[in-house]
Amino acid sequence: xxxxxxxxxxxALLGSDINIWLVIIPGLxxxxxAGSIAGVSNTMAMAICxxxxxxxxxxxxxxxxxxxxxxxxxxxAVTSILMGIPGTTSSxxxxxxxxxxARKGLHNEALGVALMASVVGVLIxxxxxxxxxxxxxxxxxxxxxxxxxxxxxxxMSMIAALGGNSLARGLIAGAFGLLLGTVGMNTAGHxxxxxxxxxxxxxxxxxxxMMGMFAASQLFTLIGxxxxxxxxxxxxxxxxxxxxxxxxxxxxPVFQLRGTLIGVFVGAIPxxxxxxxxxxxxxxxxxxxxxxESYGKGNPKGVMAAESANSSSxxxxxxxxxxxxxxxxxxxxxxxxxxxxxNVTGGPSFIDQNMDIVYTIILGNFAQAVLLLFVGLGxxxxxxxxxxxxxxxxxxxxxxxxxxxxxAVTGDQAGPITLFFFAGLGWLMKRYDYPVAACVVGLxxxxxxxxxxxxxxxxxxxxxxxxxxxxxxALVFAALLVLSLLQPAITNYLRARRARQQD
Amino acid sequence: MRLDQIRPGHVFLLVxxxxxxxxxxxxxxxxSRRLTNTILxxxxxxxxxxxxxxxxxxxxxxxxxxxxxxxxxxxDEDQDSDQTPVDMLRGVVLLGFTGLLVFFYPRxxxxxxxxxxxxxxxxxxxxxxxxxxxAFAAIFTLIVLGGARxxxxxxxxxLIL
Lengths: 503, 161
What we know:
By secondary structure, chain A is mainly alpha-helical. Chain A has 22 helices and 2 strands. Chain B is flat and about 50 Å long.
């Protein structure tokens, strides 16, 4: 599994050029800041910094961009936890428990959990990459629409987990979100719901819509409150509590490991990536926890599952990029652009001939993960002070930042307009106890579900069962999906049986 | 039926969702009735209509119920928020300000629109200390928009900056 010769070569390469190490901390800081500003994602930061890498050698350039990628993975958690506004689709699930923890005055613990979960997630993700990059790449290439559909359905099961107290309202929110996600031109070329508005051809801009729904539903309900946190003594950055967050991650290794594994394998699938991985990991954590009722109210295990999946998906997406030369998402697309700028092409031949460089990138990312711990702690000292700002000053400021972030995503008025309409919708939904999160998840997954459903239908000749029986990976996914849905019932049955036997 | 027990905001939300779903469904069927167009939209629309009708009926029954027999959950929903009616009204106004910013920034310039939005919002949320609020709005606009213009590759229409 491990090419020891290439490994030795990688160690030699790492020791040969100090620039490989000098770019890591600036990259992490840029990623942290970019990820923490809603709408300005790590992908955008990588795109902005890409021209700078033209003046660097290949390895320092890749280290710089992957550091931005790594920093941004945690940066998104900061705004999710402190403001309840996920800056990227990969931080959506972090909001569900991170923000309630912050409202209870546990923002330091939540940030500590998120940081440690991110660090451990990145480390384990890259260990898996180190050991199985080539076989995992060969596995990814075999995935087709049927497998992608099942992954999307697995993500959709999240909607049920977020349904809230009322089944009818949960169904309305989730189904309406899915419908909104299908607006535009579908994979079969049919154009629906655009009302002749050109920017809707590609669908509703997801990030502005998501920011609008969360921003309004969280911020507007704070009007009348003095501060984000009622308890004055809790309104400060406290490293002791951040450290207690670290230890919470170490106390629940199963949740951390499961979230990480989900993130790596889902992150390896092109086009799916961390936006679905964090949702699946969160839903799994909620389903399998004895205390599932506490999810959505400030359970640190929810933050842990989401952030570990979000961060480990970086390692997973690198598999696709290195082994197949395919971008798994925006971040790896930037990395491939950097490859091209230095006349390097990723793919099977790259791995065959340059395994030492692959290992150098992986080992460099180990160092990034460790450094993220310290750089992240420093960043939290500044970012954590946001809880001291009175709500009156915070709300309009955050709304403007969100609007600029929405503008940054689309480059024109489409983003801000989308944010505005979804802000109104999100606020109304929150006011009348409709689960906003379920609507957002539906919005994220709608296009993917429809596209893969159509492709699967077409390729299978109209849903022929034999098609699925000949796809063992799809059968395995289907079995995993059914098991994960039935797991709470099975666990309860076994517990009740054990209790009866003890009686 | 007690009209004061109807929640107009909830009815508005339901009408909005059901109306949008109906419009989208009709637009989809108008585009094409092939399975590749309707495979997901039609079942989801039916689900939204069914659940929406259930909620509307529930809202009507609530309006007809004796207030002493209203389900505890309904009462809890209304009392869940710490916000007063004035806070809710401020929220509506803030949303209105956001709409004005979004639709008028191309004409006013991003900088002026943001400055006016922040100043107006601060004054609306807490009507005192106008000078400090104006200064904050100006400094915030300068820093945020100045930084955005440097970072973002898109042209941002501004009046002064």
